[in-house]
Amino acid sequence: MNIKSLLLGSAAALIAVSGARAADAVVVAEPEPAEYVKICDVYGAGYFYIPGTETCLRIGGYVRYDISGGDVGSFDGAKTLDVKDGSENDTWRKKARFTLKTWTGQETELGTLKTYTETRWNFGNRNDYAAPLPTIDNTAGNSGVSLNFAWIQLGGLRVGKDESAFNTFIGYAGNVIQDTLVPYGDFDTNVIQYYFDAGNGFSAVLSLEEGAGGGTDGFYGKGTIDSYVPHVVGGVKWTQGWGAITGVVAYDSNYEEVAGKVRLDVNATDQISLFIIGGYGSDDNLSDPTYAFDAGGRGFYKQWGGNWAVWGGGTYKFNEKTSFNAQISYDEWKNLGIAANIAYDVVPGFTVTAEVDYLNAGKFDDADFSNWTNADKKSNIGGMLRFQRSF
Asked: pTM of this prediction?
């Protein structure tokens, strides 16, 4: 073997060893691309896909701060005792609220699967001078957490915690803060509902409801069903470019009474929208008092005084930022409520509203506190300033 052969053999051996070691080397995998949140525009703005699913989620809510003063009966002011001498004072009513909302949506072979939840946290002082008993305890503090909505809907079928279709389907009253100076029906309830939309402006709802409230103390009403028979609400609506006509009828299974409302909405111009609601209900068997010593005559649905009531009002948009809202309500018991406000969008998502409210408690009696609107006197006036950041 000559030197040349030895060198060539050594080189071949080195190459073979190097190749074997290279085959055994650890290969570093390329990093997988990050799965960023994807926008879901199927159900409107603000939705995004939950990573790894076909479910779209939206998270929102608002932070609100109310400053109000005036008479208790307009639900604005509060009363308290002077710390030094114990005398009765009028005082501000303050209320802060944080509301968290969630929406989900997903397309399935049986239709759109949706959920909605709304939870509220509140901190403020009391103004319940007349209910359930006369008191001027103006303690400020947390007033608990409330689950206002938690429902599931597949296609037209909805189940869960909602507000009564007696209000949601026909629509709440005006764009004022105190729209229940003359009440138009109770709200919280568990439901089994079916919504029908014909696609030509005609829609309908059938709702089986549990109601809310209860007990035998005689102060808060017995709205929760007292057997296996539910409350029943049905409604129809016709919507067109000029506005809408809506009607709802409710059967109170506790008292076997019926109440109904009819509503007309008119878009008079691009700046002016108007509405009027008429309500009528039977009350032969109704005995629920609203507050202590009240004469009764109300149920879960027919909460106005007497058989009939009317609510009317509208909105005028001065411009894209500013609107004027007003509402007048009146019932057979001569309860009169007037509310008006100016709402101003400081920046998108932040609105300041200044409102004035007036309430005349028609069946007020100073001697026995027989008022059913939380008034401590017959004629009441107050005002409120609201700051709200919605997101």
From this structure: 0.84
**Cα 280 from Cα 309, distance rounded (Å):** 7
Per-residue pLDDT tens digits for 76-112? 988 888 888 878 888 999 999 999 999 999 999 999 9
* Two tokens, residue 190: 């568990």
**Plot region of 44 (φ>0 → left; ψ -120 to 50 → alpha; else → beta):** left
- Tokens encoding 60: 């929102």
Peptide linkage before 132 cis (omega within 30 of 0): yes
Pick the CATH number of 39-390 from 2.40.160.10, 1.10.340.30, 3.40.720.10, 3.40.50.300: 2.40.160.10
pLDDT digits (tens, 9 = 90+) for 52-75: 999 999 999 999 999 999 998 777
Q: How many residues does the chain have?
A: 391
User: What CA–CA distance (Å, rounded) separates 310 from 263?
Assistant: 10
Look up residue 57 and give its two tokens: 């989620």
For the CA atoms of 81, 84, 90, 93, what is the dihedral angle to 10 degrees? -80
Main-chain phi, psi angles of 255, to 5 degrees: -110, -5
Q: Where are the domains of the chain?
A: 39-390
- For residues 338 and 357, the answer to whether their CB atoms sit within 8 Å is yes
Distance CA 91, CA 136 (A): 11
